[in-house]
């Protein structure tokens, strides 16, 4: 393979290629308990194991009645119990919300709308609309409730529990590793004397985890020495245990940029080699053959912090979605609150903050490719397509950051 003299890939095409590579490599699944399924992805459709509800269920506290009133109480049925059938007209049973409606009951009467005489007989007028849930009202046995590829959240877990599931078959979480390249980086203390503090080593694992990957602290290494031998050894070691290795820096072809030669030595194949996007140039995604026949991936992120995050959301987020059987994260449409310039033949990803209604986006300040201040207050990126610009009021695509619920409201 060669990394020289390549034409940058269109930004939207790059996202699609990364996602397709992940989908093609997806497949490893595992069975987990319901509590452990939160945040995972269904690898099989969730189907109803029985009718829901499985039996006629009372929606009220009151009386299950048969025949004309007044009715003589002949028993009680509570949730979890099975009531004998009402076999005679003029009889009723006291019933609780959620309890099984006895066979033979013609109607349910709310307790607050009933009266009892001195003989204990019950009277009242049942409402016209039946106050019980019929079997199969919510779902029928074997009906598909949720398709494979559904992200599991507490509501999905609740549906599964209602159906009677104890475990779910989900896609295995991709294992990710991070290699920080650059002898000039400090890993502690304040920058100075020609050296800058590494900001990607501490933050990239958090982005990866938000996208469903696992990152063992032992899988974070660097700064890796700026030699070909050190790069090759570090990448080989990381690929031995990770499905995805992210590297920071070294994506150019300078005198201390050894990533492309390392990939060539590993017989890697480029999925994407440079993307026509600013900031974020250059970035890459490569497929590396694995000893078990299953490919591993390496995402080369630029060394400038904001460019690295743009590479993450452009290539890594779609790849991880594909590996987990999820849909490609969609762009939304928002209104540009102010003008956003274009970047010639490149897509311009402009950091922006959403309004309270989520319908408008205001470009952020402090957004140089080496800056992080604007990123720390933004919700995502306005995408300005090549050869265009956006005026205030224009509708523009918006790519959200993979933030957790409640962040940056």
From TrEMBL:
Pathway assignment: Cofactor biosynthesis; molybdopterin biosynthesis
The reaction(s) this protein catalyses: adenylyl-molybdopterin + molybdate = Mo-molybdopterin + AMP + H(+)
GO molecular function ontology, one term from the record: molybdopterin molybdotransferase activity
Gene Ontology biological process terms in this record: Mo-molybdopterin cofactor biosynthetic process
Class in the EC hierarchy, top level: transferase
UniProt keyword annotations, A-Z: Magnesium, Metal-binding, Molybdenum, Molybdenum cofactor biosynthesis, Transferase
Entry-linked InterPro entries: MoaB/Mog-like_dom_sf (IPR036425), MoaB/Mog_dom (IPR001453), MoeA-like (IPR038987), MoeA_C_domain_IV (IPR005111), MoeA_C_domain_IV_sf (IPR036688), MoeA_linker/N (IPR005110), MoeA_linker/N_sf (IPR036135)
GO cellular component annotations of the record: cytosol
Cofactors named for this entry: Mg(2+)
UniProt xrefs under Pfam families: MoCF_biosynth, MoeA_C, MoeA_N
SMART domains: MoCF_biosynth (SM00852)
Listed EC numbers: 2.10.1.1
Domain MoaB/Mog, chain residue ranges per copy: 177-322
Job of this protein: Catalyzes the insertion of molybdate into adenylated molybdopterin with the concomitant release of AMP.
Family the entry assigns: Belongs to the MoeA family.
Protein name, per record: Molybdopterin molybdenumtransferase
Highest classification ranks of the organism: Bacteria, Bacillati, Actinomycetota, Actinomycetes, Micromonosporales
């Amino acid at each position: 393979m060669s990394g020289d003299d390549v034409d940058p890939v269109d930004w939207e095409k790059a996202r699609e290629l990364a996602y397709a590579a992940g989908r093609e490599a997806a497949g490893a699944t595992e069975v987990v308990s319901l509590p452990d399924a939160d945040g995972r992805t269904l690898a099989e459709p969730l189907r109803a194991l029985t009718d829901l509800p499985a039996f006629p269920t009372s929606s009220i506290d009151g009386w299950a009645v048969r025949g004309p009133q007044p009715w003589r109480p002949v028993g009680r049925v509570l949730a979890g119990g099975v009531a004998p059938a009402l076999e005679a007209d003029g009889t009723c049973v006291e019933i609780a919300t959620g309890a099984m409606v006895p066979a033979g009951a013609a109607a349910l009467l709310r307790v607050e709308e009933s009266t009892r005489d001195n003989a204990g007989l019950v009277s009242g007028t049942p409402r016209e609309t039946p106050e019980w849930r019929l079997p199969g009202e919510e779902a029928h046995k074997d009906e598909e409730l949720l398709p494979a590829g559904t992200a599991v959240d507490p509501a999905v877990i609740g549906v599964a529990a209602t159906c009677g599931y104890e475990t779910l078959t989900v896609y295995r979480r991709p294992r990710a590793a991070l290699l920080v390249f650059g002898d000039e980086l400090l890993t502690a203390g304040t920058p100075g004397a020609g050296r800058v503090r590494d900001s990607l080593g501490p933050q990239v694992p958090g982005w990866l985890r938000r996208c469903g990957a696992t990152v063992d602290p032992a899988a974070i290494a660097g700064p890796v020495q700026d030699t070909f031998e050190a790069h090759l050894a570090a990448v080989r070691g990381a690929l031995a245990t990770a499905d995805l290795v992210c590297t920071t820096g070294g994506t150019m072809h300078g005198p201390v940029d050894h990533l492309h030669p390392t990939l060539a030595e590993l017989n890697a194949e480029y999925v994407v080699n440079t993307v026509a996007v600013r900031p974020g140039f250059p970035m890459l995604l490569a497929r590396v053959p694995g000893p078990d026949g299953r490919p591993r991936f390496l995402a080369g992120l630029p060394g400038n912090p904001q460019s690295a995050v743009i590479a993450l959301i452009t290539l890594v987020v779609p790849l991880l979605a594909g590996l987990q059987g999820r849909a490609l994260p969609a762009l939304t449409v928002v209104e540009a609150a102010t003008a956003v310039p274009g970047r010639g033949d490149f897509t311009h990803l402009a950091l922006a903050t959403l309004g309270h209604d989520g319908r408008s986006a205001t470009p952020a300040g402090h957004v140089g490719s080496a800056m992080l201040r604007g990123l720390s207050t933004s919700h995502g990126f306005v995408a300005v397509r090549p050869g265009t610009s956006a005026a205030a009021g224009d509708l523009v695509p918006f790519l959200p950051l993979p933030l957790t619920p409640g962040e940056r409201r």
